[in-house]
Amino acid sequence: MKRLNGIRLPHKKRAEDKPIKPIPLPALVRIPMLMHAGTPCTPAVRKGETVTVGQCIGMSGNKNSVPIHASVSGRVSAIEEYRTVSGETVPCIEIRPDDEQILCESCVPPVLETRDDLIAAAKASGCVGFSGAGDLTFRKLDAVKNPKMLIVNGAECEQYLSADNRLMIETPEDAVGGIELIMKLLKIKEARIGIQIDKPLAIQKMNEACADKKGITVCLLPPVYPQGAEKVLVYHTCGVVIPADQTAADQDILVLNVSTCAFLYQYAQTGIPLVERVVTVDGDAVDKPCNLRVPIGTPVKDLLEYAACHIERVRTLLCGGPMMGTVLDTEEASVVRQQNGLTALRRTKGNIRESACIRCGRCMKACPMNLMPMELNDAYQRKDPAALQAGHVALCMDCGCCSYVCPAHRQLAEKNQLAKLLLQKE
Amino acid sequence: MKHSTETVSPYIRGRSSVQGIMFCVLAALLPAVLTGWMSFGFQALMLLGITVGTAILAELFCRAIFRKRQTVHDLSAAVTGLLLGLTLPPDFPLWKAAVGSIFAIVCVKPLFGGIGKNFANPAATAKILLMVLFMDDMTVWRLPQSGTVVTQTPLTGEFATYWDLFLGNTAGNLGETSVLCILLGALFLWLTGTASPIAPLSCLGSFTLLTALGGYDVPAQLFSGGLMLGACFMTADYTTTPVTRSGKCIFGLGCGVLTFLIRHFGGYPEGITFAIVIMNLLTPWIEKMTKPHPFGIEDEPKPAKQKRKKRAKAA
Question: Average pLDDT, stretch B53-74?
Fold first, then answer.
């Protein structure tokens, strides 16, 4: 089997041997009403009300949404407008914690006996994909009608990030438990966990955890970026080529992040919805990289302070890793459900200077989808939708490999994103 | 905190740069330059200095006239000048070399849009111009040690041993005499990943095969003339050769076959330069034929055939 293209990023996962630590309770949490790919929720509490951990504070009638829960117990001090990472303005509930962390009475372990139970539980828990995109887990579970295989994403190929890695090292039984639960309820015979070979400890722990489990195997992935992208992951773990206009669900394959599986297991045990998550704080502006267990809605400023980051040195602050993360306008932004990392860099992209393409073909050799980024770039420059379509720009998954390798420092991946928008408008 | 204006990922970049790549090519040509100097003395260095210098000045001048951002710092003009100089006889008149260098830069590069836009290899094109204009000067060489002037290279006349040819103890163009030094440089480029060995190897391979089949003296043919320098450095040029792997292979094959044909059936003793420029012209077509297959895209039925079928049905 031929390996898909990719690039080798310098290994900068400085937090990979730092155990997950809980962060001290923040003085204030701000929980936006949109932390998933879908419709925003409307606040279900009013200013001045007291809330408890796990209490539902945001709901939406739309089926494209999951409820949002309070991550701390305390008093709602304000409900104001908030601009999310994706640019939408949504209400945001501000809670001042009372430091008691009283658990809501509604947090009882769910009854999980059938497929529908699992889907309902995934919805009620507010579960979203843990790896950054924030897709709704219950929709993913629902989309695969006759799942043949569960593929678990433990690749975590982004630079700096190590939250999934630490989870697999510290609580492999949670991850495997979640996988077993999903396999049992969705009647899946086989599960494969993809882990990059540069995480030997995680591979060892996961292998030990699933040694006596039937049908679960650990697949080794090359230490090449990107591996976590759905099509790449599926191809490298089970060799299935997903056609251009389809997703893994169309091939009866369910792809979930390893942290998502672990969370579903925890939820099945305790009934506490998604109110906290592990975030890696790293980047070249951070002195003490770390993995933190953070209540959802904690200002990222608190995380940066904990990680000994000099805020005045930060030029680019990212939700996620440097290859696919999205920029945060301000350090007042909150940690959201789908945020797997917080990267603080000392450089901006402003000083990248483009020069002419020398046709070296490195972008083409780096593209996992075998596209020709330099030609797509030309086509976008000409605003030529036919050429963009002929070059299959829709296959581009914004991994950024082409921009990374380009010796002329051309903004190839960036232009591809704009090109896809151009095609949508047509 | 200052805010980043660019809000689209990725936010980090690799270390490669155009300048770095060109610097590697210059470094790879260094052994050939050194043998040229050792064999032919100061005159050789003068010639290289003139070709490189005029190439750089011509580029500066052109970009200034076209009011474009200066691109001299990317070192591509220096590479063109050096490559041209290495393919000239050591005693070639300096002003004529300057003419070649200026032609290479002005007519082949900026007029088509500068670096990355030229359709043919500037050094090879300039060499052809000089061959056509100054045929007499292009065919006078001298032996490295004795300084005896000869008008025949090993390609057309007598030579000492294969070993002399390999090491460079022979008459010939400035940087083309020592196969060993050229190969050292090429190996450096291949190992550092700067250039792909596909086109050079397929060029040398196809040439060797044809020469053997034709019953010619294989090592003598392979080690003499401009074949080695052209194959190692000009067929691996980025801009003027196909970007795809199979395209590079076809390009190399074409160069090898054409060189063989020109050497044995053409009017000129040396064929690699012509072969490269001819294949350069075919590059867009080769590239179109060998486009990579995007992931998860099935073979599209060819529209022309479909039309024919439809017509047949209609009829």
Answer: 92
For residue B134, give the DSSP letter: -
Residue range B31-36: mean pLDDT, rounded: 94
Listed by start position, the domains of chain A span: 24-107+273-345, 115-270, 362-425
Closest chain B residue to A399 measured between Cα atoms? B10
Mean pLDDT of A181-207: 94
| Domain regions of chain B by residue span | 18-289
Tell me what pLDDT residue A334 has: 92
| CA A132 – CA A37 distance, rounded (Å) | 10
What is the rounded average pLDDT of the residues A28-41? 91
Question: Closest-CA residue in chain B for A319?
Answer: B9
Question: Per 3-state DSSP, what percentage of chain B is helix, strand, and coil (rounded to 5)?
Answer: 60, 0, 35
Contact criterion met (CB < 8 Å) for B12 and A408? no
Chain A nearest CA to B292, separation (Å)? 6
At a CB cut-off of 8 Å and minimum separation 6, what does A121 contact? A110, A112, A264, A267, A268
Backbone angles phi, psi at B8, to 5 degrees: -120, 135
List of chain B residues whose C-beta atoms are within 8 Å of the C-beta of residue A409: 13, 17
pLDDT at B17 > cutoff 50: yes
List the CATH code of the domain at B18-289.
Answer: 1.10.3430
Q: Could you tell me the CA-to-CA distances from A384 to A271, A371, A375, A387, A418 in Å, in that order? A: 52, 17, 11, 6, 12
Give SS3 for A89. strand
**Distance between CA B260 and CA B155 in Å, rounded?**
12
As given in the structure block, the two tokens for residue A181 are 């639960």
Mean pLDDT of all residues belonging to chain B: 87
CATH number listed for the domain at residues A115-270: 3.40.50.11540
Alpha carbon A47 to chain centroid, angstroms: 31
Q: Is the pLDDT of residue B2 over 50?
A: no
Chain A residue with minimum CA distance to B20: A407
Contact between chains at A408 and B18 (C-beta distance less than 8 A): yes
Could you report the predicted ipTM of this complex, rounded to two decimals? 0.87
A81-90: b or e for each residue (b if 16 or more CB lie within 10 Å)?
ebebbeeeeb
Closest-CA distance, A379 to chain B, in angstroms, reads 15
Yes or no, beta carbons of B296 and A7 under 8 Å apart: no
pTM (2 d.p.): 0.90
Task: Read off the pLDDT of residues A155-189 as tens digits, 9 standing for 90 and up.
Answer: 999 999 999 999 999 999 999 999 999 999 999 99
Cα A175–A179–A181 angle (5° rounding)? 115
In chain B, which residues have their Cβ closer than 8 Å to the Cβ of A406? 13-14, 16
Q: What percent of chain B has pLDDT over 90?
A: 60
| Residues linked to residue A152 through DSSP beta bridges, in sequence order | A193, A256
Q: What are phi and psi of B314, to 5 degrees?
A: -60, -40
How far apart (Å, rounded) are the C-alpha atoms in residues A213 and A208?
A: 10
A392 and B8 within 8 Å at the Cβ level: the answer is no
DSSP class of A223:
S
R_g over Cα of chain B: 22
**Exposure b/e, A233-258, CB count within 10 A at least 16 = b:** bbbbbbeeebeeeebbbebebbbbbb
